[in-house]
Amino acid sequence: MAIRDYIRERFFPHIWCPGCGHGMVLNGLLRAIEKIGLDKNEIVMVSGIGCSARIAGYVDFHTMHTIHGRALAFAAGIKMSRPELKLIVPMGDGDALAIGGNHFCNCHEQPCLWNDRRPVFSFIRLWDDEYNITIFKHRPCF
């Protein structure tokens, strides 16, 4: 498949700030998926809230936009019910380490997310450094 087959073209151009690296992350992710040769119908992208979570809106996979900080919990539920699907979870600082920190720390306890001590999902943490949507508040220090 071509990269154009993996995106929802009607949502472009993107709405990220000029100079933001999220578009490059999306581009790299799509190129990796194309190189591996995954079918878009076998991929689920689960995201939370924030700039990094907008990645899920641009891809033409099965997507789930969840509440803030709970993307890993929803991803665990999807993997339990449909173990054959490939999971991708893009998260920013808040989803991963602030409000979602507890889920991030405890995801290793979910047997549906591990196979022989190896993760069965892709977790992508985007380093935002500050919360730009909420008027440039600084992220927690981790």
In words, what does this structure look like?
The protein has 142 residues and is α/β, with parallel strands linked by helices. It has a domain at 40-138. The chain has five helices and eight strands; from the N terminus they run αβαβαβααβββββ. It has helices at residues 22-36, 55-58, 71-81, 93-97, 101-106, and strands at 43-47, 62-65, 86-91, 114-115, 118-119, 121-125, 130-131, 137-138. The strands form three sheets. Strands 2-1-3-6 form a four-stranded parallel beta sheet. A two-stranded antiparallel sheet has the order 4-5. A two-stranded antiparallel sheet has the order 7-8. Strand 7 and strand 8 form a beta hairpin. The model has no long low-confidence stretch (mean pLDDT 77).
Global morphology: globular
Which stretches of 5+ consecutive residues score pLDDT under 50?
A: none
Helix content: 25-40%
Total count of helical runs of at least 4 residues? 5
Structural class by secondary-structure content = alpha/beta
Major sheet size, sense and barrel closure: 4 strands, parallel
Distance between the termini: 39 Å
Q: Give the ordered list of helices and strands.
A: HEHEHEHHEEEEE
Number of strands: 8
